Amino acid sequence: MKDHGPTAMWLGVCAWLLLGPCAGVTFGVTAASPPNDGAPHDEASTVSEEDLQAAPSLGLVTRYAAEHNPAIRSARHAWEAARARITSQQAYENPMVTYDPDTANMAETRSGPQETGVGFSQAIPFPGKLSLRGDIADEQARAAHERLQATIQEIARQVRGRYADYYLAARSLKINASTTELTRQFAAISEAKYRVGTAAQQDVILAQEQLSRLAAERVVFEGDQETALGNLNALLDRPPRAPLGNPADLHAEELAVALNDLVDSAGGARPELKEQDHFVAASRDSLRLARMGYLPDFSVGGQYIEVGGGTNPTFPKDGHDIWMARLGFSIPIWVDRVQAEVNEMHARVMQEESRRRDLTNQVYDQVQRAYERVRVAARTEKIYRTTLIPQTQERIGAARAGYQTGVVDFLTLIDSLKSLESVQLDRDRAVRNYQQALADLERAVGRPIAAGPDEGGE
Q1: Distances (CA, A) of 58 to 158, 253, 447
Q2: What is residue 157's predicted lDDT score, i.e. its pLDDT?
Q3: 117: three-class secondary structure by DSSP
Q4: Which of 82, 103, 164, 195 has most Cβ atoms within 10 angstroms of its Cβ?
């Protein structure tokens, strides 16, 4: 009996080396290098804790959130996973290598008894199927990238809204402090007039009552500030009471862009719409792939069998080993199953296209509603800033002079002070409402609308 063990082993290794690279062959789509997604990757932070505790502008806080927010990190990893899937979807299945050991009870041919054998096979889908699978995975990866963009924009929207709450709380405390200082001055005037008998004790008591009311308000405003701080820190992936510096001033300005322009811009800029476009493209590729189910797949392979010699010396091929090549293909006879898959994918295309239209309508509605909120808030803030606050300040000056000369009573002076506090708070609430409406508008459109010096600065 011949010793062909090394020969069989060598042939097995050759088959593996020959087919091994084929298992990694890809077609059509390759994973592209990561585009700039607008958010820093897992690198050193460009915004430090010291920056946040010193003078945290809206732009600085937004960048910190983009670097640290876990929702953004999760979306980025989901996109990276989707990109990595492209290669696996385009690759051949692993080849199959078989080894048939000599069991001493093998069939015998005219050339001699069969001994050890080795074989291999490789499944090959019909041309075009692998590339379509790669196209589907590529569209899904692109959709995941748009989901990342949407997450970045959503976190930026929430940061602006919560920063506006933090700003309002800080402004409320500042207004409370200035109102308290004015009340103390008025209280001193009332006490001086009471000592000389030109004012009633009621004026002194009314002044102390107003100071107590302001102290109670301050407790509420401090609670609002701590709540706003915790809400903002949650987006920054910081402890709830991690210190944050005083917010920068925020403003409210009339928009210089028309609603129709914003609606048109949203159609091409909103990440969710672009994400859905990729889902539609992926469903269409899936439909084409399902239709290719009517086409056969192939397989190629080969086999080597050792044959023992010496049993038939007069035969010229006594002891010659057997070499065989194999070609095969599938027969897609279960057409009902293939047609069911085609029908399913066709319905999926209709679903994704309808979803795209529904999203478009939702986006346009979000744009117009946020646009009106921005306009209302900007106009309201302007009225308070340019008309009501100056008028109320003038009223306080007149009431103060009138009280000192005995023309008006102390209650009138306190009422004018309450009015000033109220209109100042309402003005800052209008600024807060404007910033939150602008955040919603930018989110609805899918891009920045306007950036004042307080929004993009350091």
Answers
A1: 11, 16, 16
A2: 97
A3: strand
A4: 164
pTM of structure: 0.84
Instruction: Name the one residue in this structure whose structure tokens are 């048939």.
Output: 100
User: What confidence score (pLDDT) does residue 18 get?
Assistant: 44
The pLDDT score that the predictor gives to residue 314 is: 66
Task: Retrieve residue 432's tokens.
Answer: 């807060």
Classify residue 447 by its DSSP letter. S
Cα first-last separation, the chain:
86
Beta strands in 258-345 (DSSP E): 298-307, 322-329
- Give the per-residue pLDDT at 35: 52
pLDDT at residue 433, rounded to an integer: 97
Contact between residue 431 and residue 452 where contact means Cβ atoms under 8 Å apart: no
What whole-number distance in Å separates Cα of residue 58 and Cα of residue 249?
9
CATH of 60-91+125-295+332-453, one of 2.30.110.10, 2.60.40.10, 1.20.1600.10, 1.20.1440.230: 1.20.1600.10
**β-sheet bridge partners, residue 302:** 120, 325
pLDDT attached to residue 11: 47
Q: Kindly list the domain boundaries of the chain, sorted by start residue.
A: 1-30+97-124+296-331, 60-91+125-295+332-453
Report which of 147, 144, 159, 142 is spatially closest to residue 68, judged by C-alpha positions: 159
**Rg of the chain taking only CA atoms, in angstroms:** 39
Q: What phi and psi values does residue 407 have, to the nearest 5 degrees?
A: -80, -35
For the CA atoms of 196, 199, 202, 205, the dihedral, rounded to the nearest 10 degrees, stands at -60
Phi, psi of 326, deg, nearest 5? -130, 135
pLDDT at res. 102:
79
CB atoms within 10 A of CB 245: 16
Contacts of 189 (CB under 8 A, 6+ apart): 400, 403, 404
Taking 50 as the pLDDT cut, the residues of the chain under it are 1, 4-33, 42, 451-458
Residue 313 pLDDT? 72
Q: Give pLDDT, residue 19.
A: 45
Residues 304, 15: Cα–Cα separation, whole Å: 11
**What is the per-residue pLDDT for 452?**
46
**pLDDT digit string (tens) for 98-141?**
988 877 676 667 667 778 889 999 999 999 999 999 999 999 99
**pLDDT on residue 245:** 93
In angstroms, what CA-CA distances link 241 with 48, 59, 224, 232? 17, 21, 13, 10
